[in-house]
Amino acid sequence: MQLGFIGLGKMGGNMVQRLLIGNHQVIVWNRSPGSVKELEQKGAVGSESIGDLVTKLPGRKVIWLMVPSGKAVDDNIEKLAGSLQKGDIIVDGGNSYWKDTQRRSVPLKEEGIHYVDCGTSGGIWGLTNGYCLMYGGDKSATDYLEPVFKTLAPDNGYVYCGESGSGHFVKMVHNGIEYGMMQAFAEGFEIMEKSPFDINLTQVADAWQYGSVVRSWLLELAVRAFREDPTLEKLEDYVQDSGEGRWTIQTAMELDVPAHVITASLFNRFLSRQDESFAMKVLAALRNQFGGHAVKSKGE
């Protein structure tokens, strides 16, 4: 299949390479021309602008967006919409908020343009391992895209989730679950690291990959991290979030679903960003006031 691809970052660039390996013809564009040149050397067709990309796509046009959520998606859709025809397809493969996806799909549908939301998981390893794809939108459009999904995903690694917004909804929940899993691993390894035993965390994590009920790709990545830096002394204890955890919790509240683990894992990330926690100071002060419990003063 021939398709256009906009956004050639860490994931986008690798996705294009996987499509090229699968014998698709890919027309690429990116704000920074360097990544376009790199992919041209690997078989992609470069373009100088979004308009140039569209003109290089004959017949029914498929354009995959792999750009940050929010304004970047809206800006690209605005630039594309005027150049596309009835039946053309825009795929948003980034981590957009599902309600934004529903909003965007309405005016495009009125113009006869299909808007497919495709949650994409696989990170920087997707080029080799494939990407898990969770997508929503008009079924006729997603069926048309199946050759692309088959190439990008490993066997059985793509799923149609339903109408517009459902793909991004499922990906949002997927990432919320990921928050909780990562937090559980982090807490468990800290307990072992602080134990009275000289436990080799690398060896334990490696052994858990064989037959253990907690074996997973995240555990494989923990093994890699420990092998590179057994005590993680090179890292700062600062953890960012990219939004999906917040959206999952907001949605859980709207649906009256208790989501204790995901919520706690997000708040732990907030805690990691504090140089000093005023809340913890308040807790210490209150314990000292009502019970005379010991506190530590600065400089001690």
Describe the structure.
- With 300 residues, the protein is an alpha/beta fold.
- Helices cover 51% and strands 13% of the residues.
- The chain has 14 helices and 8 strands.
- The protein has helices spanning 10-21, 33-40, 50-55, 71-81, 98-110, 126-129, 139-144, 146-152, 166-193, 201-207, 217-228, 244-254, 260-272, 278-291, and strands spanning 2-6, 25-29, 45-46, 62-65, 89-92, 114-121, 132-136, 158-162.
- The protein has an 8-stranded mixed β-sheet, with helices on both faces.
- Strand 2, helix 2 and strand 3 (45-46) form a beta-alpha-beta unit.
- The longest helix has 28 residues, at 166-193.
- It is elongated, with a radius of gyration of 23 Å.
- The termini are far apart.
- 32% of the residues are buried.
- The mean pLDDT is 94.
Form type = elongated
Main beta-sheet annotation: 8 strands, mixed
- Average per-residue pLDDT, rounded, comes to 94
The Cα radius of gyration reads 23 Å
Sheet/helix structural class: alpha/beta
Strand order of the largest sheet: 3-2-1-4-5-6-7-8
Q: How many separate helices?
A: 14
The fraction of residues assigned to DSSP E strands is: 5-15%
Unreliable sequence segments: none
Gap between N and C termini, in Å?
Answer: 67 Å
| Approximate helicity band | 40-55%
How many strands appear in the DSSP assignment?
8
**Topology order in helix (H) and strand (E) letters:** EHEHEHEHEHEHEHHEHHHHHH
